[in-house]
Amino acid sequence: MNTMTSKPIVTGLLLLFTLLSGVWLSNSGRPYNTVIFTIHKLIALGAVIFTVVTVRQLCTGVDIRTLALGAIVATGLLFLALFVTGALLSIGKPDHVAILTVHRAAPLLAVIATAATMVLLVSSKS
């Protein structure tokens, strides 16, 4: 398996682990368990850093098309939304249904945007 295939797979696995740790955290109840919460935050941060590094490496030497740039921007905004809503949920204020809804919907959209970004950049490389 070459680097161009393995890095997107690792990115997907990290996103999956982030989702699973988020479900584990959610099911642990409130107040959030500090250990589970820290594990979730660290996995999420690692996933974002690995994704950024991977996208950056895939962008080198590639003429980025508008669609790929849009996917990169959408991915970044979705990750930002996840971090902001996660922070708001962790402090417990404001306890608003809209924030929880965004934090539950954004992971699926982030995975789709990340996959689209990877596919567009990998296909541009070949």
Report on this structure.
- With 126 residues, the chain is mainly alpha-helical.
- It has four helices and no strands.
- The chain has helices spanning 3-27, 34-59, 66-91, 97-125.
- The model has no long low-confidence stretch (mean pLDDT 86).
Summary of the model, kept short:
The chain is mainly alpha-helical.
The percent of residues in helical segments reads over 70%
N-to-C order of helices and strands? HHHH
Q: State the shape.
A: elongated
Give the biggest beta sheet: none
Can you give keywords for this protein?
126 residues, mainly alpha, single chain
What is the fold's blueprint, element by element?
Blueprint: H1 3-27, H2 34-59, H3 66-91, H4 97-125
Helix pairs in contact: 1-2, 1-4, 2-4, 3-4
